[in-house]
Structure formats: C-alpha cells, structure tokens
Write a structure and sequence with these properties.
The chain is of the alpha+beta class and 434 residues long. It contains seven helices and 22 strands. The strands form six sheets. A four-stranded antiparallel beta sheet has the order 1-2-3-4, with no helix packed on it. Strands 5-6-7-8 form a four-stranded antiparallel beta sheet, with no helix packed on it. The chain has helices at 188-207, 211-218, 232-242, 248-257, 266-288, 293-306, 310-323; strands at 21-27, 31-38, 46-55, 60-68, 75-80, 90-95, 100-107, 116-124, 131-136, 142-147, 150-155, 160-166, 262-263, 336-337, 363-366, 374-378, 382-387, 392-398, 401-407, 412-417, 422-426, 431-433. Among the domains are: 18-172 and 359-404, YVTN repeat-like/Quinoprotein amine dehydrogenase (Methylamine Dehydrogenase, Chain H, 7 Propeller); 232-273 and 311-337, no CATH class.
Amino acid sequence: MDIVAQNRLSDETSKILYDIRVTAADINIDWLATGEEFNDMEHTPEVRLKFWEYQKNTQNYALNTNFEIPHDGGFRLIKFSSPLGSDNLVCATVGLDNVLKVWALEDSDNIYKQGKTWGCVKKITYKYQPIESVSFSNDGSLLAAGFANNLCIYMVKNMELKFVLSTPSSYSGLINECFIGLPKEKSKKTTDNRKTILQSFIKSLESGDDKFVKSLSSDKKSPKPLNLNEKSKPNLHKQILQSSDLGFFQKILTFKKLSIPSKFSDKTVADKVLHRFNGKSHSLSKKLKQVPHKMQFKAKHKLNRLLPTHSNKFDEVASLLQFLNISKKSGQMNGFSNGVDKDDSSEIKTIPKETKKIVQIKHICFCSGEYAHLVVVCTENRVFIWNLLTLRLQNILKLSVEHVTFDPITNLIACFTRYNECELFSLLLRTYKH
C-alpha cells in the first residue's frame, strides 16, 4: 500500500502535454483583456476571459476578474471601446458561438474584494447569423457589429439597436442564382407600335386626359381557353417534367388541372415528402449549435418531441397518395411514365438541401474627425464605405482586404490586401494611391 505516493513514476512521459493558449487579447491604458483556451482533446475545453488591471506601484498587471466559459468553443476577438480613455469603458467579445457580449465595470458584490469588477451587461445575436468583426466609434458612443452581410449599429449607452445596413449579395460579387433570357426577333411594326403607345401615354400624362388609359383597358382581349389534343399531351408532359421552375408538387397539380395522366411511384412521392421534413430538421439542428453545452441536452430532447416520428411521416405520404388517387398496390396511374423505377423495398435516400453562400463582413473601421459619420466595411471581395448620416453607400471598391485602418491626421485609409499590397484612399480628394 503506497501511502505517500512517492514510490512510483508518473505517466507524463508517455502523454502529450497541452499548453494554455491565449487566442485573443486587447489592451487599454489601464486594463488588459485576454481570452484563454485549454483543450486536451479528451475533456470539455476550458475557456476563460480575464481582465487585468495595471498597477502603477509595481508596474505590472494584476488579475481583477476571471470568467469561466464566457463563450462556447473559444474566442474570435476582444475589443475595448477606447484605447486611452477609462471613463465609461466597455469591452466587447465575440466567440465561436456567434454571440457578441458586452462587458462593463460595476461595483463588486464580493465582501472579500472591494472596488470595481467587470460584468456582462448585454448578450447580442442577430438572426442566428455568424459574426467575425466589431468596432467602436472614436468617442465610444457607437458599436458596429458585422453579422454576415448586415452591419448592425448599437448605442453603447443602453445597447439599443439603432439601424441595420445591408447590401445585396451581388454587390459583393456573389451571385446565388442567374437567369438568362434571349429576346425574340423584333419586327419594325412592333417597335413602331411601342413608340406610338409611349408617345400617346406621355401626352395623356401631360394633359391629364384618361381617355387613352380607358382605351387600353377596353382593348384587352380575354385569354383563349386551352384546348389540348391527345397528341400534344405527351410533348407537354415532357416539357413540364423537364422544367426547373416548377417544383415536384406543382408539376403534379398542373398535370391534374390539365387532365394529363401521369404515374409516380410511392418511392418518389415519399422521398419528396421526407425531404421536406429533413430540411426542417436540418435547420433546427443548425440552431442547436448556438445553444450552450449545458442546455443542449434539453434542447435536443425538445427537438425530438417536436419533430414528427417516422409513422407520422408515412401517414402524410399515404394521405398524399390518396389525394393523387394512386393505388398503393400498383403504385402508379395509367398514363405516361416519368422514368422513375418503382422499388418499394429500397431505402429512401434523402438529398441534403443546398445552402446558399453568405457574404461575411471581415473588418469594420470607423473614421474620425470630420469624417466620423463614415464607416469602412470590408467583405471577402469588396470594400464598402457607409454614410451614417444618410444611411447610404458612399463608395464601393473591389479589393480583398486582410487589414484596414484609418489615420485621423492625414484622413487616409490604408488597406492591406491578401496579395501583400497596401492601398491608400483619401476621403478628402476621393483619390486612390497604390
């Protein structure tokens, strides 16, 4: 029996020792904030936020406040509201859980430690969107946060959301969908008719006479009823199946309205219905990642109760098959085939839903002085300059920026690109130097 535990060697020689890593930090004239992480790949990662106060007597920093697990997963950045001032000082932290937290000084409630300590005053999220950058204005009164491609402006005094500025994804060079239409050949008669109609319409607007508008409404022809022959139905059936603008259920409804017979197997309809349910469960499982680790078990339990079971799913499939008058035994209707093999014994495979790409704000920089109303926002491919007085875009530049800063003396904006180049922009002259 080893009582003193000194007669055996430790097993540290055969193990990998992990160090505590400081992943984010920011400094003020009186304070230092650090974000620490420790992960040994076996236990739950340890995340700590520490505020250090500068001691003038010892010329060193002393620990003032320590927070355990302020963010799930770790830190992205830490930012003080002012590098020099200490009055009304706040600190913003962004974690890997896409949550923005604001910390402020308050009186200590601990009887063993008097004075000022730090505490969380606000927890901010915006539509469960990712956040990678925050910035304070020069006077510390405004806080700008970049949630995806949305620039959210908050008042630091009461942390109230003032407004949200966003641009379409096409402004950042990202196109999710593209449609190309080829115009038909135009004859001279159509162009002449358009010119005469446009001229008469302008004259009616200038004179205030509504006779021309009434004549246009009276000249409208009622649409002709659609008469389909039995020979044209197979071609129309193929065109509807090949069209990408209509969904699966829309195609079925068009077949029913046009009285075009078609057949779909049980597997095809069931696959489409289950795809809808899996799309909802996929979006809810994404939101589960935003929940803290302590509450994830309860959230998963509630999610399993809310989501329909497999029996409910197949009940809805059966009702849909009954609505379409499809026999469960044969699994088809008499008519044209869509080329889908019927195999009820095979497993139903769910197709993952394609997620649209999101434009993410990487850097935010407030200007100062007479240009304090301008905010520089950098995405992956663009640089936007927003005017907070007019709430409009003042300029757009095509640049891939890694770091941006503003010089209040020369009124120059310096952007360092990913290709190791420095671009200088003058707000006064609106000129650009390379």
